[in-house]
Amino acid sequence: MSIFSGIWIPLITPFADGAVDHAALRALVRRYGDAGVAGIVALGTTGEPAALDDAEQDAVIATILEAAGAGRGGTSEPGAPLPVVVGVSGNYTASMRERIQQLNALPIAGVLMAAPYYVRPSQAGIVTHFMTLADASEKPVVLYDIPYRTGVRLELDTLLTLAAHPRIQAVKDCAGSLDTTLALIRDGRLQVLTGEDMQIFNTLCLGGSGAIAASAHVRTEQFVALYRALAAGALQEGRRIFHTLVPLIHALFAEPNPAPVKAWLASQGLIRDELRLPMTRASTTLAERLAAWERD
Fold this sequence. Notes:
The protein is α/β, with parallel strands linked by helices.
């Protein structure tokens, strides 16, 4: 089984009085490892990396790797570390290359890289960008296709070209194109992890390998059970589990991520309900809705 399968948590970054709360971060990693997730994504969009300086990002990675070392993930061998993928973002290839070279020294499972945001390069520029970064990486690469954040999508021909690189092994699929998703799955060279939580059931049924799901911060065991049911061919059981999760997924994306997730975690006493501007806390109405929903 590929390492890039199952349910992955794009971990939030907890804050306390404005600083990173490393005790809470460490506890979250262990919580999700115990719940059977396949791995952790550090410094993905949900982790608010744009609001962390370089030293804070390095400290977050170190804490996550330390906490993941006990190896309780659903696809890890007993005693093996829970896999950690690190997000790397930017729109200047040279600086991203330097960052990837720094990450080469760490015991991470891979790097997650989106297309350069804001500058909207050509598809040829995107191919050269990712090939340059993959050449620099000693770790597997997960492409991140999320055009509503970057301003440019990875066209199917681009993805298939990039799939030829030996270190480009998976894609976090947020493009919203069924044709592209199915074509990548049928091609078979890239593991397809959906990043759209409402598409988890569809993607897994089509033959995708898993999900990087912010919603899985909540009721994690059910998301893991959904994956395991569908991987075992238990379609009716998988459908039943997914239908119970749909209202939760809708609620957790009713306002900008990760505010709803943080509100729920705070209501459970796991973190403080803090974000850094320009992100703001979930509205009182939504926070109360999530707390009531969880009680039910």
